[in-house]
Amino acid sequence: MSWELVLWLLALCAPLLLLVQLLRFLRADGDLALLWAEWQGRRPEWELTDMVVWVTGASSGIGEELAFQLSKLGVSLVLSARRVPELERVKRRCLENGNLKEKDILVLPLDLTDRSSHEAATKTVLQEFGRIDILVNNGGRTQRSLCVDTSMDVYKELIELNYLGTISLTKCVLPHMIERKQGKIVTVNSFMGILSAPLSTGYSASKHALQGFFNGLRTELDNTCPGIIVSNICPGPVQSDIVKNALTEDVTKSSPGSYGDQSYKMATSRCVRLMLITMANDLKEVWIAHQPFLLMPYLWQYMPTWAWWITSKLGKKRIENFQSGMDADSFYFKTWKAKHD
Ligand SMILES: NC(=O)c1ccc[n+]([C@@H]2O[C@H](COP(=O)([O-])OP(=O)(O)OC[C@H]3O[C@@H](n4cnc5c(N)ncnc54)[C@H](O)[C@@H]3O)[C@@H](O)[C@H]2O)c1
């Protein structure tokens, strides 16, 4: 075959290959490194067994599902949140369906905003299991309110809980991991740690702060203790109680928005599976969401001018949805997802 013919064939195939890749990307639900790890990387079933994993915010949503999937891998689990009955329910679910025994799961009530209790809680875990292999910083709350209406107490609460509570617990666990020269610190961040949207100014600020903190911590540990892995997990919309539990303009007022229909969001089980793949493969930062949500962090990173334009257009609809009592994102993304299911 002549070189000319080969070049012609390549020229014909390249657009086809590009088109195939584009179509694959439009079906993707994680960033490329994460999907590569899912395809070719280490399996959670090989890597995470026998580990001691401490999950905060384990009483509902992503944290509950994470506990459930981890229980099938044969880890030792510490389940933390504020509501003990809910944690006991999650524990029973793990025992019924997982490979664990009573002694493998510790229910440890913890309020992330009560920072003075974090040292004692860490000691309790170490007394019970002797080590902490993975800390999953998952507990947190979102926000649904316009900045102009929101009291400073709400901003304070979001920073106390999502940011200061998370770094306080991390700082309690870190010396133990440094002593062992190993461990994984996994933080459930959000697309809102990369971009921003109306109605979530305080939430977004707290998640951006976490992103800055953990990216900085990773560079410190890379040089002083490379066996400790810092992973930032950034999901887009995932089915959970997050909107139901959202802070509003006043700390004492619960979320008024409708949150019944979550069909446009990613299934919690899929999000958690991708989180386990992240942990098994020591990925530093991952983005998890269905399209078209997944496009957003790519746009914000690589085409910020376009990202601003689109966010502003979508933001207008988001505010209108919210003001008419609907979940901010449900209406306009539901149609898109229904077409692609
Ligand atoms: N669901 C989503 O769409 C989504 C998207 C991106 C990021 N996230 C992040 O995922 C994490 C889990 O949220 P979720 O979606 O499962 O929501 P969720 O409301 O179902 O779960 C939040 C968990 O955090 C706990 N929590 C709240 N305040 C706490 C406190 N003061 N002390 C200790 N625990 C506390 C709750 O009890 C609950 O267990 C959060 O950090 C959230 O920011 C969620």
From TrEMBL:
Gene: DHRS7
Similarity comment: family membership: Belongs to the short-chain dehydrogenases/reductases (SDR) family.
PROSITE patterns: ADH_SHORT
Pfam families associated with the record: adh_short (PF00106)
Protein name stated in the entry: Dehydrogenase/reductase 7
GO molecular function, one term: all-trans-retinol dehydrogenase (NADP+) activity
GO CC terms, sorted: endoplasmic reticulum membrane
UniProt keywords, alphabetically: Oxidoreductase
InterPro entries in the cross-refs: NAD(P)-bd_dom_sf, Sc_DH/Rdtase_CS, SDR_fam, SDR_family_member_7
